[in-house]
Specification:
It comes from Deinococcus lacus. It is an enzyme of class 2 (transferase). Keywords: Amino-acid biosynthesis, ATP-binding, Cytoplasm, Glycosyltransferase, Histidine biosynthesis, Magnesium, Metal-binding, Nucleotide-binding, Transferase. By secondary structure, the protein is of the alpha/beta class. It contains six helices and eleven strands. β7, α4 and β8 form a beta-alpha-beta unit. The two termini are 36 Å apart. The structure holds phosphoribosyl ATP and zinc ion (ZN). Zinc ion binds next to loops.
Length: 223
């Protein structure tokens, strides 16, 4: 039995759009997981590592605070957390280890199809990514007001809460179904493997090197 504190702790999304790609990656690396749907921790059976299965929004903080060693998370969630935490003076650093080539999407501003050629100036823009949106607005000198919503962003214009939205898009079906038209891509994202700052224990460091070598092999084979 490997001591828990010498295992690599890897924070991953418990269930959602990144879970399947994440589990496939570990499986392709030859790692067998002891996975129980209701359990937070999924230990590997043949590697000194364990997965911590959490909500994706918790992953950047777990890495930036040094509570987990590695994480798999979308760049959208990562960059939003970095901006938010940096602004509050909280730890906001991490190491970008590998781009994982799944979970691709874009964060885009969309307006009602009938307004889609009009200016954003003075508009309310509903979003779950107020920091990424505000940065983009400031860079372009556009005076618009981000309105924060954690869900159902695409219904905000119909509900009279905002004139536009800034949300993740992959196929574009959700925007079209809500009478919205994509207007500006403000951020492009995919899943990333990230690591905490600071040194790992020697055993953990050896496990990470081995994991990265396997990952590189898996990614090469997929090309
Ligand atoms: O429960 P938990 O907090 O862990 O999950 P969650 O519901 O917050 O996240 P989840 O599972 O929906 O998404 C996890 C990550 O997947 C995101 O942070 C992105 O990095 C990535 N991803 C890739 C996407 C999409 N594609 C995507 N299309 N995340 C969300 N969407 C949503 C989007 O918000 C919109 O509602 O899908 C809808 C649009 O899809 P299309 O195909 O209609 O354009
Ligand atoms: Zn989430």
């Amino acid at each position: 039995m490997v001591r828990t504190d010498s295992k690599l702790k890897i924070a991953v999304q418990k269930s959602g759009r990144l879970s399947e790609g994440t589990l496939r990656l570990f499986s392709d690396c030859g790692i067998s997981l002891n996975l129980h749907e209701a359990r937070l921790i999924a230990p590997a059976e043949n590697w000194p590592l364990e997965l911590l299965r959490v909500r994706d929004d918790d992953i950047p903080g777990l890495i930036m605070d040094g509570a987990a060693d590695l994480g798999v998370v979308g760049e959208n969630v990562l960059e939003e957390a970095r901006l938010e935490r940096g602004g509050m003076g909280a730890a906001a650093e991490y190491r970008l280890l590998r781009s994982l080539d799944f979970g691709h999407c874009r964060l885009s501003i969309a307006q009602r199809t009938e307004d889609a050629n009009g200016s954003l100036e003075g508009q309310r823009i509903a979003t779950s990514y107020p920091y990424l949106l505000r940065r983009w607005l400031v860079q372009r000198g556009i005076r618009a007001t981000p309105v924060s919503l954690t869900g159902s962003v695409e219904v905000a214009p119909r509900a009279g809460l905002a004139e536009a939205i800034c949300d993740l898009v992959s196929s574009g079906t959700t925007l079209a179904a809500n009478g919205l038209q994509e207007r500006e891509v403000i951020f492009r994202s995919q899943a990333q493997l990230i690591g905490r700052m600071g040194p790992l224990q020697p055993e953990q460091s050896a496990t990470l090197d081995r994991l990265l070598r396997r990952l590189d092999g898996v990614q090469k084979a997929r090309e």
